[in-house]
Amino acid sequence: MKLISVIVCSAAAVITSLALPAVASATDVHCTSQNGTDITVIDGRTACRAASDLLGQAKSLGIDGVGYANATAGAKAVGIGVRGGVGASDGAGGMPIAIGIGQDAIAMSSIDSDAVSASPAAPIVAVSVALDGSRAGAQTTERTVVCLGAGAFAWNSRTGDACLSTPFGRWQTPVHQLP
Q1: Euclidean distance between CA atoms 109 and 102, whole angstroms
Q2: Among 29, 96, 110, 146, which residue's beta carbon has the most beta carbons within 10 A?
Q3: 30-48 per-position pLDDT tens digit
Q4: How would you classify the pairing of strands 66-72 and 86-92?
């Protein structure tokens, strides 16, 4: 009799979970800035900020995390923070992209104006992605990429430097591979 009760209760639980809609607990905020605006949205532990000058475009997104984007001198900056992560991008030209996913993940991408003026023909891209407690950074000022932790990726298109950090090891291109 106990076996039949267990089967009936389990079937009822499965049918109920499929039939009733689930309540999403993730809080998301979006910030978009262009034409010199500065927008900040905070909702509990979720936040975003997007700031730009007259030429830049910044977009940030926080989904139970913090997204930050600052775009000047024609930059198109993107910052995304998800599930406790932080994605912060700052660009004076070019396209910095930073994505932090998971608790205590921090991704930072930065493009300075000297890097943009040094290579005006090709757009400069700096990408950093950090997962669950990892750190990733791509900065053109210092011409470096940094990957720390069990899940990180960073790439600097100006120098060609890239790194990847996984639970199985860390790989990095030689410093200053491109002129």
Answers
A1: 18
A2: 96
A3: 999 999 999 999 999 999 9
A4: parallel
